[in-house]
Each structure stands twice: as C-alpha cells, then as structure tokens.
Amino acid sequence: MEPQELHPERSAQRETRQEPRAQRPDRPDRPETPERGAPVPPAQPPPVSGQPKPLIGRRTLLAAGAVGLAALIVPRLFHSGPPPLPTPAGQNFDPQYRKATLALQAAPTEPMPATLGAWKSCMGSAAGRGVSDLDLAILVDNTGSMAPLIDDVRANIGQLISTLRTGAGRVRVGMVAYRDLGDDFVVRPLPLTDIGGPGAYAVQGFIGTMQAYGGGDWPEKLDAALQVAADMGWRHDVPAAIVVIADAPAHAGDAAAASAAIRSFTSHVPGGQVSVVDTGSGGDAFLRGLPGSGRGQYVTYDGDILKSLYPAITACPSK
C-alpha cells in the first residue's frame, strides 16, 4: 500500500515552483532570471558606435578657447605698453626715462633744411606755405638734469641762427631760461630780438651763459616761463612759436596757470602755437598735453636738437 500525501496542496505548490517562470507580457525586454545554481552568462560589452567619444567635450573646448582669447586681448586693451615709470624724487638723471619717452614716440629723423626758404609751415593760416617772417621764443629748463641738452643747444645755436637768417623776411628770436623756486633765479628772459644784425650775437651770448644747476625736486616753474614768453611783444601778422625744451612738467598746483598762459598767447596772437621738445620725462602727461591746447606739436629728442626743433618751430608732424 502506497503512502498517501498528508498535504496534497503543498505538493502542488512545489510542482508549481519547479515549472519555468513565465515572462510577464508587460516587460518583454526583461531577461529571465536563471535558476539557482545555473551558470551566469558573461556580461556583454556595450555596442560600439560609429564615432569614438571625444576625451574633451565640445563645450569644454569652446570655453578654453574663449579664456585663451581673453588672455591675449585684455592685456592689450588695458596695458598697451610697459607700466609707467615712478615719479622721480628729484632731478632725473636716469636714462630709462629717455628710453621710455622714445618708446612712446620716436624722435624726428628728418634733418632741418639748411635754408629758411625750404621750410614749410603748419601754423594756422600759414599752413602749407613757406616760412619767411617768424617770431620764435625758446624756453629751456636750466636745472641740473638738463646739462647734455644745454650743451647740444649751445653747440648748434649758431647753425640755427644761420638757417633762420637765410630767409627774405624778418626773424626775431627770444629766449627764456627757467629753474624753480629756491634756485638763484626762477625766470631769466631775453626779449624777442631781430637776428638780422647784432641781435644774433645777443641770442648766442645768452645761450652761452646758460648752465644746468639746481632744481631740487622734479617739477619746475614752467608756468612762470610760459607767462613771461606769452607777454613778449609778439607781432600779430606773422607765424609765431613758443618752443618748450624740458624733461619735467610744471608743479601740479601750477598746471592751471601754465594752461592759462598758453590760452592767453594763442588768443592774442592769431598765428601763434606752443610746442614741446621732451628730452626725457618718460612721456609725462602734462608735457604731452601742452601742445594740444597750444595748437603745436609734441616732439621727442634723441641727441640732435636741430632735428627736434624743426617740427617744433613749424608745428608740422615730426618725421
């Protein structure tokens, strides 16, 4: 006699569990779970697409390019040249300031024409015409740092006067030597003098007495020199030029007085202009700005005063 199942419903459950599990109709893509103890098949690698995935994303490359471009452009926008030199504490003998001045603007290379008839003017109504009559005042900083420049002026003033005397008109030259408060003099002038006769020797003699001395701090009394020059007896019907030769500006508190002297001159002398020959200020903003208010030129200097004086006197752009 065969034994009977005491619990037939449990046997039915076991048999049901041993049957393969049917896949749910709503999850057709779900793989079947292998039975316990069955070997697990190795994992399959993901399918390889047609193009390899880049190591650096497109957005990353664009961002890096933008950063690099900014690194090139921004310094040129805000730092177009070398950093400015510090303001000298006293008389400036440092050659770096002349180098910086020449880096800002090259000195003229065109020689001064040997005869006045070959000169061309760019002054006011005389622009484009030859130079015949002329009133000229040359203002020279006579403080300690200007010794090489004064030597150059002294060596070449004879050539300048000879050139100015070759014209058919009347040429007058005045001079102003200036220093600073506390020196043995602040301003020492020679009035506008006709160089067609003995006056030429007076101009040469005045320059022969100039010496580089004193000054103390860096700025000088340039405003006082400009006022003395503006008050000279200028003719109103000929080209007229004030030429400042300097390596230092006026004192900050005197800048307005210097500008007022220039305005006074240009408003009363129709053909008048004010130019600057910068002998080594490092490109000081005050010296660069003076010609703008005086209808003249900002000119630099590299050891040849005649080449620098020619565009300064005629108010023509330097070449």
Task: Give me a quick take on this structure.
The chain has 319 residues and is α/β, with parallel strands linked by helices.
Structure explained in plain terms:
The structure is a single chain. With 319 residues, the protein is of the alpha/beta class. Strands 3-2-1-4-5-6 form a 6-stranded mixed β-sheet, sandwiched between helices. It has a domain of 214 residues: von Willebrand factor, type A domain (Rossmann fold, 3-Layer(aba) Sandwich), CATH 3.40.50.
Please describe the topology of this protein.
Blueprint: H1 8-18, H2 58-78, H3 95-104, E1 134-141, H4 147-164, E2 171-178, E3 187-194, H5 199-208, H6 222-230, E4 240-246, H7 255-268, E5 272-278, H8 285-294, E6 295-300, H9 305-314
Parallel strand pairs: 1-2, 1-4, 4-5, 5-6
Antiparallel strand pairs: 2-3
Features:
14% strand; six-stranded mixed sheet; globular; Rossmann fold; 9 helices; 319 residues; alpha/beta
Going by helix content, strand content and strand pairing, the class is alpha/beta
N- and C-termini, Cα separation = 133 Å
Low-pLDDT windows of residues: 10-25, 67-81
Question: What's the average pLDDT?
Answer: 82
| CATH architecture descriptor name of the domain at 101-314 | 3-Layer(aba) Sandwich
Shape: globular
- Name of the CATH superfamily of the domain at 101-314: von Willebrand factor, type A domain
- Strand share of the residues? 5-15%
| C-alpha Rg (nearest Å) | 43 Å
Largest sheet: 6 strands, mixed
Strand order of the largest sheet: 3-2-1-4-5-6
